[in-house]
Amino acid sequence: MKRSSKKKCTVLFEPSGLKIQVPVGTVLLDAAHKAGIYLSSICGGDGYCGKCKVIIDEGQFQSKPTTLLTPDEIRQNIVLACQTKVLSDMTITVPRFHTLETSQILMDTNARRFSELAGEVREGVFEFDPMVHKIFVQMSPPTVHDHTADHERLYLAIREQIDAPIMQTGFRIIQKLSSLLQSCGYKVTVTIGRRGQTTEVIEVEAGNHCKRNFAVAVDLGTTTVVAHLIDLTKATTVDTEATYNSQINFGEDYIRRIIYAEENDAFDEMQNRIVHDVNNLIVTLAARQKVDLHEITTVICAGNTAMVHFLLNLDPTRIRREPYVASAGFVPPIRAAEAGIQINKRGLLYCLPSVAAYVGSDIIAGVLTTRIFTKKGIYLFADIGTNGEVVLGNRDWLVCASSSAGPAFEGSGVKHGMRAGAGAIEKLTILDNGSINFKTIGDTHPVGICGSGLLDTLAELFMNGIIDRTGRFNPAINCGAEYLASRLGPRLAGTLKWGSRLTEGDEGLQFQLVPADNNHHEIVITQADIDNLVRSKAGVFAAIRVLMESTQTQPEDLEAIYLAGGFGNFLNVRQAVTIGMLPDVPLEKIQFVGNTSVAGAKTVLLSRKALEAAEKIAKSMTYFDLMSHPGYMDEFTRANFLPHTDLSLFPTVTQSVVRRA
Amino acid sequence: MKRSSKKKCTVLFEPSGLKIQVPVGTVLLDAAHKAGIYLSSICGGDGYCGKCKVIIDEGQFQSKPTTLLTPDEIRQNIVLACQTKVLSDMTITVPRFHTLETSQILMDTNARRFSELAGEVREGVFEFDPMVHKIFVQMSPPTVHDHTADHERLYLAIREQIDAPIMQTGFRIIQKLSSLLQSCGYKVTVTIGRRGQTTEVIEVEAGNHCKRNFAVAVDLGTTTVVAHLIDLTKATTVDTEATYNSQINFGEDYIRRIIYAEENDAFDEMQNRIVHDVNNLIVTLAARQKVDLHEITTVICAGNTAMVHFLLNLDPTRIRREPYVASAGFVPPIRAAEAGIQINKRGLLYCLPSVAAYVGSDIIAGVLTTRIFTKKGIYLFADIGTNGEVVLGNRDWLVCASSSAGPAFEGSGVKHGMRAGAGAIEKLTILDNGSINFKTIGDTHPVGICGSGLLDTLAELFMNGIIDRTGRFNPAINCGAEYLASRLGPRLAGTLKWGSRLTEGDEGLQFQLVPADNNHHEIVITQADIDNLVRSKAGVFAAIRVLMESTQTQPEDLEAIYLAGGFGNFLNVRQAVTIGMLPDVPLEKIQFVGNTSVAGAKTVLLSRKALEAAEKIAKSMTYFDLMSHPGYMDEFTRANFLPHTDLSLFPTVTQSVVRRA
């Protein structure tokens, strides 16, 4: 059969109503992306993660056979978007779990944390001295007796107000300066930016506009991009917004995206997508707060090294390949427009420095936010995202490592895993009476489980004997009570309470957390999910062990542990110890600190001393490459148990298992 | 009569053979310019200077009536190009006095001065440290045990070789750095430029190219643009080239050009022309010396404030209008490409700083070259060009002023005046026996008189009594010998020897210096010429007086006087005193220093300490605005005599007049 390749089909996506015209034969996942609709996808369109399910309401299509859909789903016209080609005009329903309101992603909590953070600057940890600020400069116009040229006149006037031994001004500004100064009687607003020790005159405008100076702080997450609109004159967070990283269609983790970009020469495309995301966030924030884009003079970004490379279109290929190095760790401030970011056309884009290919500026931001680098005792910082990065140290030394343990706690690689947004189970308890209590973000019907919920789930399954120390479902809980009592004793016989919840699903054994009802699907956790979660936590713990062993740090030496990541609002830190992700220290020593990436970016934005500190941290931190570290694989293997092979490392967990048994 | 405005005519200019197509009705001066032919023109096409004479060999034209052509010239089909419209295809002969070989403009002498100057840098007045240099950087490639990012790796390696606390690199270079380094085994040539205290990585290239690093030093004259190609690795002048400033069709002095640009919104055009001139010089030098434009990494310019404004397209309008200020005195280095100058596309353009609207960077260059700013005694520096700028001072203080006395000593406003090029009379003596000795540049038949020749002419006319102290021709020299002897005594009767040389010309009385022969026109000096020359010298001397009076400097306090300008090779400094342009000091104290503008530019090019010195000079110098100075007009009036109203100011001149009488 021969078809004209030029025939176009219109695909309508509900409930958003977004439409797109695509050629016949276009893969539905691509069509969705082009329409601006983000579908979950872990495998990057390879057809094995089964995340990109959509419902075909109308139209002709061609789908590859897959084992990832149940017969029921197939009857309901559910398809995998990445395995389906468009053959005619179509109407598609995008299930709600794909299209969570991104603006609900933990914004309230974050906003709270950021106002605290701004407090940090105000309290004098760092002097308030924003990277870009505006000053009102009034000069007396030249006369025949005062013939200083306009350019020097401006510099003299600026230096009356600020300390700026080294000043730079763009040539286009100098060219237009004289007519501008004359037009407004030599009363101008000067926008001043910092580039290292150099002070740049970013803009000169007629009149006084000092009260309107905004910036955007961005956390460039592999999964989620978060932006905060900051009023630089007041050091306050005006508004926040988040979106999914639209590179996600090319792979859920950044290694896969680098491979995709390399194989398809798609580095420009990768940059375009992340820049597009950042621009969308900026435009949304600006429109909502009635801020003109011109009034946004700064964008500051923190993120993993690969994401910063994508944003700036730096070569990221050796991040994934020996010798695992970045193109640039310290990127000097550039004009935001040079990267395609649409703010004030001469506004600056700062990226926080990174330490290594696998320890990015988000981690520097974390160290900055938690102030480990100022402290005397030994502190541990762990940021659990797509990777798990760990920092150990104090004001005298800092070591760090990154475990590529996968994004299980971000909800990826977990059947009903999801990001921390509305409808996500963020808290879960399995009660002795067999029932399960949970709380969702936004208190809506549950649609999935986010990081903190997954931590609870894993810990609760283990503490209740539903899974054993290897993470395997206890087969006994499905057998007769009599048999169980005889074989397992009274403790394990108790698992009977949950016997009916353990079923054989499409992916093997699965445990039902929430039953289906008329309008909602059931929520389960599968054996594969548990394996992924255990591997993730094992990676983090093994990294912590390597750093502690290398520095001869004992758990009792730790003054505190800071846990960062997009887990959810109510992370139960005890559970992080229960599953063996964090060392067994007194719980009051563990503090959940949330998204420290954007918090650190904001600190730098508000104080140039903080950027100096960040650069010092990045330079002084020692990076341990775990892949080439002789002890890491052993530690990882030993940590692949709940809580660990060596129970003596987790005395309080052992004690509490014994108590419950 | 109605003509289609679209009809085009071809105008052929001989002897160059250059052709141009122009619409019917085009003014011939404009056609010549478009064809790349520069015709002398003082009035900017207003039809009153009579300089733009050409011969029409063939074709129809329409000329406005003029009194500036003799009946003989009209018979020879000579027209004023600015008053003539093209009506058909035409063939034009451009007389030789327009088309002097510009490359002959004093190049030998200048080249000598510049090699001395390079010596100055080598001798340690300024440390040799060029504004832009290349270093060969070899790095060990990253390994899993040495994971420093490429950008930081490069910085570390650069800092092993040079002191560069503050470094900047263009974003495009950072973006391509990784693949470049990998392609060449981490062995690169880094081109390093200085922007104030900041070190800029201008370029990174694979392999070692350190031996090829060139720069061009430019003197942006109102009349002539001079360029020197410098080998930065050896601090030597490789070649020199000069051209006429092609803005000249818009007026011979820059005030007229500013007016033209303002009235015709032609600032872009003004920039295009001067940039075009500079580019032409660069291309010519590069082609001749087999230098790739890419290997030219720096252009450095000195010139009057207006010319620098035109080059950079800065607003020059208030240079000519109250309060007489520049847009910028200190222009930071910019990328040459930003101004349209075609060298290495990331190469830098430096402009030396200026003091005021009428004291430009050429004067700073002069102070730098003469080292006045390092000296203990009091020194005087006078640069005679289109304007006459004067600097007085030493290492403790510097004062300066500019007299807009007109470009008479550059040959403008003088009937047979010309620039110092082949065929120019550069030396002239009137002998007691009535004959006149002269020497021309290139020892060819004389076609005109350049600055040094005009100085000689004026002094000789005066010393021989042909003109009196007011500059008027002595009417007696045309009368009978008897009458003269009875009326004037033996001294003035001597003027009889030259009686036949004084005739009534088109412009009044004129004195014949060289008679016509079959192939050459006569060369005369007119009463108007003399008036112009006297006004010029009076302006310079009045400026000197104002500065000396203001600082209570007596002539005997002067350690030396440096006279700069494009006079000619053999300037007789005694004559500058004779006519009363310079104070009457012992002749050994007066030194002719030539084109100090390009010399100073070159000094800065070869040593960044020299730029710091130039900036310090520009900042510390006190500018006297003569127009608003209460004493200036008086001084000017008093100086409008030969040598001066007050003969006591010129004791040696008075003595020698008395001796001859």
Give a structural overview.
Two copies of one chain form a homodimer. In chain A, the strands form seven sheets. In chain A, strands 14-13-12-15-17-16 form a six-stranded mixed beta sheet, sandwiched between helices. In chain A, strands 28-27-18-19-20-29 form a six-stranded mixed beta sheet, with helices on both faces. The first copy, chain A, starts with 7 loop residues before the first strand and ends with a helix. With 661 residues, the first copy, chain A, is α/β, with parallel strands linked by helices.
Provide a concise account of the structure shown.
The structure is a homodimer of 661-residue chains. The first copy, chain A, has 661 residues and is α/β, with parallel strands linked by helices.
List the helices and strands and how they pair.
The structure is a homodimer of 661-residue chains.
Chain A: E1 8-14, E2 18-23, H1 28-34, E3 53-58, E4 61-63, H2 71-75, E5 78-80, E6 84-86, E7 90-93, H3 107-122, E8 132-138, H4 150-161, E9 167-169, H5 171-183, E10 187-195, E11 198-206, E12 214-220, E13 224-231, E14 236-244, H6 254-264, H7 267-288, E15 296-303, H8 305-312, E16 334-335, E17 348-351, H9 361-370, E18 378-384, E19 388-393, E20 398-403, E21 424-430, E22 436-440, E23 448-449, H10 451-463, H11 481-493, E24 502-505, E25 508-514, E26 523-526, H12 527-550, E27 558-564, H13 573-578, E28 590-594, H14 596-606, H15 608-620, E29 622-624, H16 632-639, H17 651-660
Parallel strand pairs in A: 1-7, 9-11, 12-15, 15-17, 18-27, 20-29, 21-23, 27-28
Antiparallel strand pairs in A: 1-2, 3-5, 3-7, 4-6, 8-10, 10-11, 12-13, 13-14, 16-17, 18-19, 19-20, 21-22, 24-25, 25-26
Helix pairs in contact in A: 3-14, 7-8, 9-14, 9-15, 12-16, 14-15
